[in-house]
Amino acid sequence: MKKRILAVEDSATQAAALAHLLEEAGYEVVVARGGKRAMELVLGERFDLVLSDVVMPDISGYEVAERIKADPRFHALPVVLLTSLNDPLAIVRGLVSGADSYVTKPYVAERLLSRVRAAIARPTRTTEPTPPVEVTLLGSRFTIAADTEHILGLVVSSYEDLMFTSEAVRAAERRARFLAEAGELLSASLDADQVLRDLARMVVASIADVCVVDARDADGNSRRVEVAHADASGAALSAFLTAPRPDGSLHLSGDVGPQAARLVVPDPDVAVDAELASHDVRGFIAVPLVARGETLGALYLVATSKDRVYGDDELDLAADLARRAALAVDNARLYEQAQQATRARDDVLGIVSHDLRNPLHTIQLSSSFVLELIGAAGVGLPSLVPGGPPVSLSNQLDIILRASRRANALIEDLLDVTRIDAKRLAVDPLDLDARSLLDEALLDTAQLAAAGRIELTHSWDGAAVDVRADRGRVFQVFSNLLGNALKFTPAGGRIVVRGSVTRGEALFTVADTGSGIPADSLPHLFDRFWQAQQSRRAGAGLGLFIAKGIIEAHGGRIWVESIADKGTTFSFTLPIASAGR
Prior knowledge:
This protein is of the alpha/beta class. The protein has helices at about 10-25, 35-45, 60-70, 90-95, 110-120, 150-185, 190-205, 235-240, 270-280, 310-375, 395-420, 435-440, 445-450, 470-490, 545-555; strands at about 5-10, 30, 50-55, 80-85, 100-105, 135, 140-145, 210-215, 220-230, 260-265, 285-290, 295-305, 380, 390, 430-435, 455-460, 465-470, 495-500, 505-510, 560-565, 565-575. The strands form six sheets. The chain has a five-stranded parallel β-sheet, sandwiched between helices. Strands 9-8-12-11-10 form a five-stranded antiparallel β-sheet, sandwiched between helices. A hairpin with a 2-residue loop joins strand 6 (about 135) and strand 7 (about 140-145). Helix 6 packs parallel to helix 10, helix 7 packs antiparallel against helix 10 and helix 10 (about 310-375) runs antiparallel to helix 11 (about 395-420). The longest helix is centred in the middle third of the chain and has 63 residues, at about 310-375.
């Protein structure tokens, strides 16, 4: 005849789970969704045990136990409470209420069933009631009427639960430490295969006797990246797993599912499994490496030693480890794809720039040659309009020369961008007089400023110093900054260029009275192809990116400050070669 258990639990979900567990163990279960209903059922039906949650909305599990034990008809009915070790007074309250035992929540199924079986099997106490004892714990006084056997039983149960909880805490700490170390290792390389090899070697040092890692290529074909073993005893198995089967397939590869981790125990009666069993494989965990919905490979943890037993905890750990590994592999592959794209771009730019330079040089040389031939003769072309004046040939040739120079400058800018990205931008610094460098940098700009009716002034403040700089590259920076200032400063405005020594560096500033730069554009100003005013296609948006790369290649800094409708100031520094001259 089945033993009848009254399960008292106000949560519908937890009540259903508890009832299912007990019914699977062979008990007949009646559920009460509260303490009051539980007492009604106790008064009207026969039960072999009451299993009650402590915290309930009407009356608590302690009160349910007290009422049952206070009634002589049910004094012998075992009561087991579901409580928590988070409250140090819970056990004492259980003693005061007369409960026979307790189970800590969240409970482990086997431990709960063990306590239930023990409480039902415990013989009914026939001794006289023990005189109550007053005890004080954590500032609270309790009256306990339990006998010595009862108290000892609860103390032993408390100790068991404490040890179990302590071991669970230590296991959780070991797991967290292992995953933290794995995360650090997985982030140490951007080579996908190296990530997987490092992972396998780490695993065999902790949670497997042999670890196998596969990678899947773009065509969906798997290849074995690493087979690692913990000691010499695993060498033969590693060699066996490294070699493919006669049909070309990989050992273990058929056991990995598309999503979840699987625990596989070889069956000696199956030919494929018999091979594994012959190498002392007691079981293995197979888990796919999945990132962004794509399977990138698989991880296998193999157990050969008798003291290594895999269960649900190891499955969860393997799944967590595989998720981290898959993300690392995915990041490494994305990085490699980006590198390949960058290399392809650089190759294309190199080819295009070489192929474009030749015809551009031909256009420049030919135009210059024709200009020299016509000299001041003022040779003209017939007008396209009947009766109109002839068209100046020299003006047309000047236009061709300017356009070819702009095209050549754009090619150089694109090449500089690739050099900066690859950290291969070459500078050849010399000791240069900072004041003279500033004077020379503004020679070409002065005429452009005058033509636009913009006031351009410059000055060097303080004693003369030498800077370590590549003259041509620094002129390129000034050209970009002054070019921007001229574009966005209206007629009648001012551009002021200054140089000085500040905090051991040479500081140069280019300030204008233009319209300023929107605040939301400032963080992007030195990005490639960025233009604060997209409607004005005055360039490719590479000048400031290149200027930043040049200054940083010198070991300096560059930044910008801007106020709407008042103007913009670009500042950059160069290292000083000597204290003064």
